[in-house]
Specification:
Belongs to the acireductone dioxygenase (ARD) family. The chain is of the alpha+beta class. The chain has helices at residues 29-34, 51-60, 78-85, 167-180; strands at 4-7, 38-41, 64-70, 89-90, 95-102, 104-109, 115-120, 124-128, 134-138, 144-150, 159-160. The protein has a five-stranded antiparallel beta sheet. Strands 1-7-6-9 form a four-stranded antiparallel beta sheet. A two-stranded antiparallel ribbon has the order 4-11.
Length: 187
């Protein structure tokens, strides 16, 4: 099954719910690609020896990897950490996540500042571009095992919104302007 993504509703209900609009508005992979979000479907049961994952890592320079289990039983201050992950932010570098087990949501902003919810399930590998506003939460399963990939030593510094003047945000916006040939809203 391919990656599922959709435009979110504006509800303030539990962040772990799907938050589909009514009617549902699915987002195709090519629209995510226009935003700079890259996607691969891999075999999570063979991640240690997966030739496609090895090629992606080599081609993109991802030389550091670690694994992260997120669930109430394994993470101290679980609710607080989940709240921090759900705060809208950008990074100076790509954010690369590969779901090995469980499931969760990455939300990204599109060029019109609408939230798109990306449902990560086992085998989904996504790359969020530097400078894109995003956030993360688990779904109601309350469990996900992620592989985190980095170029060089891991740096995971969030820059919470607003960051419109941040150079990496400006570069991202400039790239969208170039792709879409129109002025992108700077929110």
């Amino acid at each position: 099954m391919a990656l599922e993504a959709w435009f979110m509703d504006d509800s303030n209900e539990d962040q772990r719910l799907p938050h589909h609009r009514n009617p549902k508005e699915l987002v195709p992979l090519d629209y995510l690609a226009e935003l700079g979000v890259l996607y691969w479907k891999l075999n999570p049961e063979n991640y240690e020896n997966d030739s496609e994952l090895i090629k992606i890592r080599e081609d993109r320079g991802y030389d550091y990897m670690d694994l992260l289990d997120l669930c109430p039983e394994k993470v101290s201050n679980y609710e607080e950490k989940l709240k921090n992950f759900f705060t809208e932010h950008i990074h100076k570098d790509e954010e690369i996540r590969y779901c090995l087990a469980g499931s969760g949501y990455f939300d990204v902003r599109d060029k019109d500042d609408r939230w798109i919810r990306i449902w990560m399930q086992p085998g989904d590998l996504i790359v969020l571009p530097a400078g894109i506003y995003h956030r993360f939460t688990l779904d109601t399963s309350n469990y996900i095992k992620l592989m985190r990939l980095f170029v060089g030593e891991p740096v995971w510094t969030p820059y919470n919104r607003p960051q419109e003047e941040h150079p990496v945000r400006q570069k991202y916006i400039h790239g969208l302007t170039y792709k879409f040939g129109e002025t992108v809203k700077a929110h």
